[in-house]
Amino acid sequence: MKILRKVWRQTVGRMPEWMRLLCMGVAGLCIFGLGITVAWATFMPIPSIDNFENRQVAQSTKIYDRTGNIVLYDVFGSVRRTSVPLEQMSPHIQKATIAIEDATFYEHYGFRPLSFMRAAWEDITTGSFKQGGSTITQQVVKNALLTQRKTITRKIQEIVLAVRLDRAYSKDKILETYLNENPYGGTIYGVQEASQFFFGVDAKDVTLAQAAYLAALPQAPTRYSPHGNHRDELEARKNLVLREMLDNKFIAQTEYDEAMSEVVQFKDVAEAGIKAPHFVFYVREYLEDKYGVDAVLKDGLRVVTTLDYRLQEQAEKIVEKRALENARTFNASNAGLVAIEPTTGQILVMVGSRGYFDDQIEGKVNVTVADRQPGSSFKPFVYATAFEKGYTPETVLFDLKTQFSNACAPNNFSDVYPCYSPENYDHKFRGPITLRNALAQSVNIPAVKLVWLAGVDNSIKTAERLGLTTLEDAKRYGLTLVLGGGEVKLVEMVGAYGVFANDGLRNPHTALLSVEDKDGNVLEEFEKRESRVMEPQVARQISSILSDNEARTPLYGANSQLHFPGTDVAAKTGTTNENRDAWVIGYTTSLVAGAWAGNNRTESMNQISGLIVTPMWREFMDVALEKYPPGKFVSPSPDPDADSLPPVLRGQWDTSPAEGVHDILHWVKRDNPRTGRPANPSSDSQYAYWEYPVALWSQGVVNPGMGTSTPGQGGGLRILTPLPGTVVGFNQPLVVSAYYPFPQNVIQIAYFLNDVPIGSANQPPYAITVTPTSRGPAVLRVFAQTTMGTEVQQIPLTLQ
Predict the structure, then answer these.
(1) Residue 607's pLDDT is what?
(2) Strand duo 62-64 + 302-305: pairing
(3) SS3 sequence, 405-445?
């Protein structure tokens, strides 16, 4: 009372008189209404709970395809419920359920005031209104005697009836009813059916670990399904059940330890009466998250989805056929496919595996929403980021073996951590190449350089704007991001490519057209939520490149399965390290489709090739485009600054013989490529690393850094930059670098201009930057002091 008086003085007591009177009036009305509700609920008759297993489920939630005519799934279309007396339920089941749901079940009188107030406070302070605080008795009342609507009146009824139910029936009878009525996923109700369905044993015979799984499921049966995509969450909740049992002294420490170490095998039982099962459970999980498990089970929802079931049927056949072929040929046992309409974001097709009931491949796992590395199919997001920054499809980068890690020397071409020197898919290097050709042919080295130019953070932000949600901070990936170092979901990748297809406009992917309750009231309805996340010009540039058959011909050939003569189709493949994932995502103005092939357990395939996944994607596209005919891509507009762009952005890489050959960091500012040359190119931490192989390439050095002599032999000093006869402008920075085939023997490389020392270096490419302040003929001399002696090279220059 002292506390209440103190609270009154600090709150209501400080209010103006009129506000105090108002608060007291509102409180009086609330108390009066509460009293009436309690009185009404007190005299409400309690239906008998005997023979609950025989009652009929009156309202059945149905999930339809986009026509509203084809039933994909009837939640209670084949209800499986077998009631058994409590003595035929394992004590493990009883204790596990009580531990996680209502630890004081045998002690209270049907209601726990403190738990209820704590849950109510959590609901009010968080605004979630998901905390229940309900006892097992309250849950029996809610499921059997009341509606599922979350109102204050219904909650009061639930509490009053629970107290009366607790007085009218034994605790064992209430617990027996609860365990016979609980939903355990799909059409499975009650612990007897659940025990048989998941473990192939009766409820009386389950082990402690199995019982913990059963107790974990009812909170979210679809999400926690052992055959779904959230097995880690099921494991965590099962462990929580065991911990609660231990803490409440329902089991001993030895029992807890044994149960934690037990590996439980789940029985694979085909679930009948379901079409497009991966998609259906994708939808059902969404419904349960939004409306609650009880609403999906009992409120008779009518759910019309976006699925084109006739196209889905064909896609399922194609995926199964091609995946079985791949299993025999490439050790790629599984596959998945998603198709989305880019102008709406509506999911038309979702095939989560080659067969939902195929236990050999864990077929119930939906690979379209699983996290997998995308390989080169991630590259368009980086290229789009670079285009937004001012780079062009004609921009030239050098495709040469390059070391990118500052932890290793530029002449160290190791790819073993901490070094990073990736290969191209064909282990060949092409020298200067435009961004158009580099993306179309999926060349890796220019892509890694481009993510440096575009920025890793910026590239991640672009991908997130387009709809990817699984990428974390840039430090986790670094330059590997562009080669698919992050994990993504196929359904999100397809949705993101839809932005390119839709001229830079994003429509978030969705699976629902409408949800109605049993009375026909619309709970939600599809509304187009289109937003601009990319400038049309950038999206058109990506589409132009990915549909450029001539540009990709060196990789795929002129008549590849990515080429649709007379039809605008853009496409990008992707593969990952260790041959674990093969991707292809392609689109038209009317349809985006992505396919994945690999193994659920991430085993390596025999090889990575377009032959693995492209034939499946092409066969689907041939079918789908008949129903969703495409239009023409809009061509990118001419660049208004084309004439004033730096030459390297216009496809010219060798326009300055006086300065020699350089990669792009020498010619443009990384973050503002259209605004002129950098004052000091070598200040960029990647400059020396990119320049080293370019300088060697310009002088015809084969296998840079490898050497052709044995270590210990002298000879081989070369001046890389500048070239002989270079004309150096007055007060213009001059980058000087050298090559020595055996860097382990180098003590120091020293530079002299007209016999005046200008600097030295001891790490390849031994680069320094100097600004000459005189004019006239000059001689650049380089002295290599090595363990084998001193070597000297010199070249003439002109300073003006």
Answers:
(1) 66
(2) parallel
(3) CCCCCCCCCCCCCCCCCCCCCCCCCCEEEEHHHHHHCCCHH
Closest among 673, 682, 642, 674 to 453, alpha carbons compared: 673
Residue 281 to residue 75: CA distance in whole angstroms = 11
**Four-residue CA torsion sign, 358, 363, 364, 368:** negative
Torsion sign (Cα): 155, 156, 162, 165 = negative
C-beta of residue 456 within 8 angstroms of C-beta of residue 481:
yes
* % pLDDT > 70, the chain: 84
Q: Which residues pair with 571 in a beta bridge?
A: 586
Under 8 Å between Cβ of 729 and 760: no
Burial string for 56-92 (b: 16+ CB within 10 Å, else e) reads eeeebbbbbbbeeebebbebbeeebbbbbebeebbeb
Q: E strand or H helix at 573, and its extent?
A: strand 570-575
Rounded alpha-carbon distances, angstroms, from residue 498 to 65, 167, 549? 22, 60, 20
CA nearest neighbour of 208 among 238, 247, 228: 238
Beta pairing, strands 522-525 & 581-587: unpaired
Q: Which residue has the tokens 């023997």?
A: 745
Task: Compute how many other C-beta atoms are within 10 angstroms of the C-beta atom of residue 644.
Answer: 10
Name the amino acid, one letter, at 299: D
For the chain, what is the mean pLDDT? 86
What is the rounded distance in angstroms from the CA atom of residue 552 to the CA atom of residue 440?
5
Beta bridge partners of 341: 346
Statement: the pTM of the whole predicted model exceeds 0.85: no
Angle between helix 610-627 and 309-330 (nearest 10): 170
Count the neighbouring beta carbons within 10 Å of the beta carbon of residue 27.
11
pLDDT band at 707 (very low <50, low <70, confident <90, very high): very low
Q: How is residue 349 written in tokens?
A: 């097709």
Please check whether residue 740 is in contact with residue 716, taking contact to mean a CB–CB distance below 8 angstroms.
yes
Give the span between the Cα atoms of 165 and 377, in whole angstroms. Answer: 60
Q: What is the DSSP letter of 274?
A: B
Cα separation, 356 vs 369, in Å, equals: 14
Element (H, E) at 768: strand 768-770
- pLDDT value, residue 720: 86
Q: What are phi and psi of 751, to 5 degrees?
A: -120, 140
Neighbours of 380 (CB within 10 A): 26
Instruction: State the Cα–Cα distance between residues 721 and 796, nearest whole angstrom.
Output: 12
Q: Is the separation of the CB atoms in 206 and 93 below 8 Å? A: yes
Which residues fall within 8 angstroms of residue 205, CB to CB, at 6 or more apart? Answer: 90, 195
Residue 522 exposed, middle or buried by CB count within 10 Å (0-12, 13-18, 19+): exposed
d(CA 111, CA 610): 62
Under a CB-based contact definition with an 8 Å cutoff, are residues 280 and 72 in contact? yes
Measured CA to CA in angstroms, residue 509 lies from 347, 435, 635, 726 at distances of 6, 30, 26, 57
The residue with tokens 């002696």 is 789
Distance CA 487, CA 452 (A): 20
Residue 616: pLDDT band with limits 50, 70, 90:
very high
User: Which strand (E) or helix (H) includes residue 161?
Assistant: helix 152-168
Kindly list the distances between the CA atom of residue 568 and the CA atoms of 374, 546, 548, 588, in Å, as whole numbers in the listed order. Answer: 24, 10, 9, 6
